[in-house]
Amino acid sequence: LISSATNSLRMETEALEKKLQEAQIKLAEKDEDKEKEIQSLKRLITELEFQLTMEKNNNESLLDNMRKEIKHKSDELEKLTQERTQLIHNLSQVQEENTLLQETVRRECEERYELTAALTQAREQVLELKKLSGNFP
C-alpha cells in the first residue's frame, strides 16, 4: 500500500514537475516576447523622438525664415512709405509751382490784353490825328 502510494505520489510529482517545467517554459517565452515588445517599443520611441526633433528643427528653421521674410517685407514697406511721403511732398511742391506759374501767366495775359487795348487806342488816336492834320495844312 505504501509502495503504491509512493509510486502514485512519485507519478503525481513527476506530472507536477512536468507541468512546472512547461509553465516555466511558457513563462520564459512570455518574458522573451515581452522583452522583444519592450525593445520594439523602445526603438519606436527613439524613432518617434528623432522624427519629433527633425520636425521641431524644420519648424524652427521655417519660423526663422518667416521672421526674416517679415523683417525684409517690413523694411521694404518702410522704404516704400518713405518714398511715397517724399513723392507726396514733391507733388505738393510741383502743384504750388504750377499754381504760381498759372497765376503769373494769368497776370501776364491781363497785362498783354491791357497793353493791346492801349496800343489799339493809341493807334486810333494816331489815325485820328493824321486825319485831322490832313485837313489842316
Automatic annotation (TrEMBL):
<protein>
    <submittedName>
        <fullName>LEKR1 protein</fullName>
    </submittedName>
</protein>
<feature type="coiled-coil region">
    <location>
        <begin position="6"/>
        <end position="111"/>
    </location>
</feature>
<keyword id="KW-0175">Coiled coil</keyword>
<dbReference type="InterPro" id="IPR038799">
    <property type="entry name" value="LEKR1"/>
</dbReference>
